[in-house]
Design goal:
62% helix, mainly alpha, 5% strand, five-stranded mixed β-sheet, 20 helices
């Protein structure tokens, strides 16, 4: 059993319990805030902290797993993460010294960012990119041995700023490196990336082209063409969006897909099987491939339902969606046709032809199906349910319901409770 003196000595040796180490980490984190350089120098002087890099010429490197990975995926709590960090910090400092560079390693605590920062001045025999790549490789090997253990879904991703100078450059470097680090969503590989790399790898996808690709995908969903839908989804996410490096475009595409699936899944009666808000929320994904994988089951289920039920033109789909969403209201054929973008006469003809039921009868059936759900799921009175499905006369509602189900509303509730 260790004595208190030996425990303190061990803590001082690896950094834990060392006030100089703690102070330096806190102050270096303070440099990430928007303070003037003179204020930062005063803070460093007040605590007698001297940076190990040349403030006239240095680079900012951000590496290590993000909190969205190390805790939810690998179950590392704060204590477990810090124990690993202490080891990595010592290894990275030794690597910096071995390569002839000089620098500081500290743990960033800034908003939701908790990653490893390396602020260093390169050596002639070890230029900045080479130093960052060696640091990236070291952290990757460490994770493979201690954390990943064969799990290849995630890796270490390292971002390197351009050259910096002055104490205020620490914040500038952090902001640039963090912006680059976020691009691991698109490029989850154990690489070091710079702004020059992004400019070289980035494609020319813009909003208009992304919208065209979404429309092509939507057409394959309307037709229930699963092969085309899969191919278009893969191209959209893994070719176009992946190399756009644009979170705004990913959000726009996910919003389009959410609205498209909401329409089609509602029309084909399987909307309740999927939480589209969650499926199409960017913040729920760590890498872009996860978006594709999460959405694919809904895409394939929809295509399968279209093939079994038959293809509906978009005008018919819009009409069905409008009816299902607004069956509580006093909807009319002209209202539905206007929403579908066609004339009332045209809609009546194609609706009956494609669904096998006249549009007015479909409205009634939709209302009765909704009434059946309310009878079983709620304690509402019959007259209240009649109002909930857009029928003001409770007696007329009861007659329609009996024609639809063969039972009065109260008998249906009693026999199916």
């Amino acid at each position: 059993m260790k004595t208190p003196e030996r425990q303190k000595a061990a803590a001082d040796q690896d950094g834990r319990g060392n006030w100089e180490w703690y102070t330096k980490n806190i102050i270096l984190n303070d440099c990430l805030h928007n303070h003037p350089g003179s204020i930062l120098k005063s803070i460093l002087d007040a605590f007698d902290v001297e940076p190990n890099f040349d403030v006239r010429r240095f680079y900012f490197c951000l590496t290590g797993m993000k909190k969205s990975v190390y805790y939810p995926v690998f179950g590392l709590d704060a204590k477990g993460y810090m124990e690993l960090y202490y080891e990595m910090e010592r290894g990275l400092l030794a690597l910096i010294k071995e390569r002839g560079c000089c620098g500081n390693v500290f743990l960033v605590f800034e908003d939701d960012c908790k990653q490893i920062a390396i602020v260093f001045t390169p050596a002639e025999r070890c230029p900045p990119r080479a130093m960052a790549e060696e640091a990236c490789a070291y952290v990757q090997r460490f994770y493979e041995e201690r954390v990943f253990q064969g799990d290849g879904r995630y890796c270490n991703f390292t971002a390197l700023s351009a050259g910096l100078s002055g104490l205020s450059g620490i914040r500038e470097g952090f902001l640039k490196a963090r912006s680059l680090s976020d691009l691991s969503f698109f490029l989850m590989e154990p690489v070091t990336i710079t702004q020059e790399d992004v400019s070289r790898l980035k494609n020319d996808l813009d909003y208009r082209r992304a919208l065209d690709l979404c429309r092509e995908l939507d057409l394959s969903l309307v037709l229930g063409d699963s092969a085309a839908a899969v191919a278009r989804m893969e191209a959209l996410f893994l070719t176009h969006l992946k190399h756009s490096f644009s979170f705004a475009l990913v959000r726009d595409v996910l919003s389009f897909i959410r609205d498209s699936l909401n329409l089609h899944l509602t029309v084909y009666g399987i909307i309740d099987d999927y939480d589209l808000e969650r499926l199409c929320a960017l913040e729920h994904y760590i890498v872009i491939e996860e978006c594709l994988n999460a959405l694919m089951p809904a895409i394939l289920a929809l295509c399968g339902r279209v093939q079994s039920r038959g293809v509906f033109q978009m005008a018919v789909q819009r009409a069905i969606y409008f009816i299902r969403q607004r069956c509580k209201e006093d909807i009319t054929l002209p209202m539905i046709a206007q929403n579908a973008g066609v004339s009332p006469n045209y809609l009546s003809g194609i609706f009956t032809r494609e669904t096998g039921i006249p549009l007015r009868d479909y409205i009634t059936r939709t209302r009765m199906e909704r009434a059946r759900e309310l009878l079983l799921a709620t304690g509402l009175h019959v007259y209240q349910i009649a109002g909930e499905v857009g029928i003001r006369d409770p007696k007329y509602f009861s007659r329609l319901f009996k024609d639809f189900s063969g039972l009065s509303p109260l008998d249906y509730r009693r026999l199916n409770a």
